[in-house]
Design brief:
Length: about 425
C-alpha cells in the first residue's frame, strides 16, 4: 500500500477503562481502523493526565490500576479519514479527537534486494475514486475537478472493473474545452458552462470510457506491471483480483518511488551505470527547445512538433534556463482563455494534429512563462540519481546537459523504466 505526501493525522485521547460494546475502547478503535483499511495506527499509554472532567489519572505505585490516559495516532490519506472518522466519533463517547495535516516522507515495509519482484499490492494505492457506467458525465467531471485525479476506474455494482475514464477520453469524446488539471486557467463561469453543457447531454461514463483496460493482479510482481506500462505507454494500471474486482491502482510514480526507496544505501554514489542502461542511451535526443525570447506562436509550435507538451528554454549557447509546458501556458499566459490557444493545446492530447489558427501576441516570451530553475542531469548521471531526482522533486522529464551545461537530450519516466527493466533501445522517446 502506498502512502506518500500530504496526509491527515488523527489523534484520539481516551481513557484506559473506556468501553465500547463490552470491549476496551482503545482496542476496539484499533480493530475498527484495521478492518476499515487504514494505513496504520499506534496506541500509546500515558503515565498521567486529565481531561474534560478535570480528574488526574496517574500510574503511581499506589494507583497502578487507575484509569490511565490512552493516545491513539492514526495517519491516512484524506479520503480514508473522511470515510472512517464518522464511525470513530460515534465510538468515542468521552474523549478528545484532533486532526492535522502532515507530510508523509516514507511508509514502507522494509527494503528488498529486488524491489521489482515484490507483489503489486505492496505499492498500489487502495484509496481509489470510482464511478459506475451510468454516472452522468457532469458528475464525472465534477469528481475529477474535486479530487484532482487524472483518471477514474469504472466499476459495476458488484465491484467488477468494466472500463476506465481519463481526462483524455473526456477531451476526445466528452467535448471538454481543456484538460481538467489546467482548469485553474479557466474562469469559474467557463467551468460552469462546460458542466451545464454536459448536463444537457444524456451521456454517461459508459459513452466515453475506454472499455479495453489492461490490468494486473495484486499478487503479480511489480516487474510485470512495469512491463505492461512500458509496452503500452500507460501511466497507471488498475489492480484487480481473480474475479476482476477492482482493488486499487498502481502508477509509474508508485513504481519509481518504490525503486528509489529500495536502492541500497551506497548505490546513489556508485559509478556510472553499465552500457545499455545509461542516460545517454535512454534519453530522447531531439529535445524540443525554444529561446528565452520566443513568443507564444513559436512556443506552441515547439510543443506541436515534439508532441511532448513541454519544451526546454535555452540561451544562445543552449544552456538550460527553464522548462515550459502546456500547463504553464494555461496558468500564466494572459491569453490562456483564447479559443485558438485552447484548441491547439487540446490537439496535443487528442492527436488531431497542429492547427493553422493564429495566436495573439502581446509581447509575452518564454522567459515570462517558463518554470525555473530547471532540474538537470548529465550524460554520466547514474540512473539511480536520476530516479531520486524525479521522485523527490515530482519531475516527469529531466533535461540532459553536457559538461558545459548545454542541452543534449531529455529523459522521461517511461524511458527510465525501460532502463530499469533492461529493455531500453537507443532513441526511445520518453512516455
Amino acid at each position: 500500500m502506498q502512502l506518500h505526501g500530504k496526509a491527515l493525522r488523527v489523534t484520539i485521547y481516551v481513557g484506559e477503562s473506556d468501553r465500547y460494546h463490552g470491549q476496551p475502547l482503545p482496542m476496539a478503535l484499533l480493530e475498527f481502523l484495521k478492518r476499515g483499511g487504514a494505513s496504520g495506527a499506534t496506541l500509546m499509554r500515558g503515565v498521567a493526565g486529565f481531561g474534560a472532567h478535570s480528574r488526574i489519572h496517574t500510574a503511581t505505585i499506589v494507583t497502578l490500576s487507575a484509569d490511565l490516559p490512552i493516545r491513539i495516532e492514526w495517519i491516512d490519506p484524506p479520503e480514508t479519514v473522511q470515510r472512517l472518522l464518522p464511525t470513530v466519533r460515534q465510538m468515542v463517547d468521552d474523549g478528545l479527537i484532533v486532526q492535522e495535516e502532515v507530510d508523509v516522507v516514507q511508509y514502507a515495509p522494509g527494503r528488498r534486494s529486488n524491489p521489482l519482484e515484490q507483489p503489486v499490492h505492496d505499492i498500489m494505492r487502495t484509496n481509489v475514486t470510482t464511478v459506475t457506467p451510468d454516472t452522468p458525465l457532469d458528475r464525472v467531471v465534477a469528481l475529477l475537478l474535486e479530487r484532482g485525479h487524472r483518471s477514474l476506474p469504472v466499476v459495476e455494482a458488484d465491484g467488477v472493473l468494466c472500463g476506465i475514464l481519463t481526462d483524455g477520453d473526456l477531451l476526445r469524446r466528452g467535448g471538454l474545452l481543456a484538460r481538467l488539471n489546467a482548469q485553474v486557467a479557466l474562469s469559474a463561469a467557463q467551468v460552469q458552462q462546460q458542466l451545464d453543457d454536459l448536463r444537457r447531454q444524456p451521456r454517461t461514463a459508459r459513452d466515453v470510457m475506454s472499455q479495453s483496460v489492461l490490468t494486473v493482479q495484486a499478487d503479480d510482481p511489480v516487474s510485470l506491471a512495469v512491463s505492461r506500462m512500458v509496452e503500452r505507454g500507460l501511466k497507471r494500471l488498475p489492480v484487480v483480483d481473480a474475479d476482476q474486482c477492482l482493488l486499487g491502482l498502481v502508477s509509474r510514480v508508485d513504481v519509481l518511488r518504490a525503486l528509489e526507496y529500495h536502492q541500497p544505501v551506497g548505490q546513489l554514489a556508485a559509478s556510472p551505470p553499465r552500457t545499455g542502461h545509461s542516460v545517454a542511451e535512454l534519453m530522447y535526443r531531439d529535445a524540443p527547445a525554444v529561446g528565452a525570447d520566443a513568443r507564444l506562436e513559436e512556443i506552441v509550435q515547439a510543443l506541436e512538433s515534439s508532441r511532448q507538451r513541454r519544451a526546454v528554454v535555452i540561451d544562445k549557447e543552449r544552456r538550460v534556463l527553464g522548462i515550459i509546458s502546456d500547463g504553464d501556458l494555461l496558468q500564466r499566459s494572459r491569453h490562456a482563455r483564447h479559443p485558438n490557444l485552447l484548441t491547439r493545446l487540446r490537439s496535443l492530447i487528442t492527436g488531431q494534429g497542429p492547427h493553422s489558427l493564429d495566436l495573439p501576441d502581446a509581447g509575452e516570451t518564454a522567459a515570462d512563462l517558463m518554470t525555473t530553475p530547471a532540474m538537470t542531469i548529465t550524460l554520466q548521471t547514474p540512473l539511480a540519481d536520476a530516479l531520486r531526482l524525479m521522485v523527490q522533486h515530482h519531475i516527469k522529464r529531466l533535461p540532459v546537459v553536457d559538461e558545459e551545461g548545454r542541452l543534449v537530450g531529455l529523459l522521461g519516466r517511461g524511458s527510465l523504466l525501460r532502463g530499469i527493466l533492461g529493455g531500453a533501445e537507443a532513441g526511445d522517446s520518453p512516455a
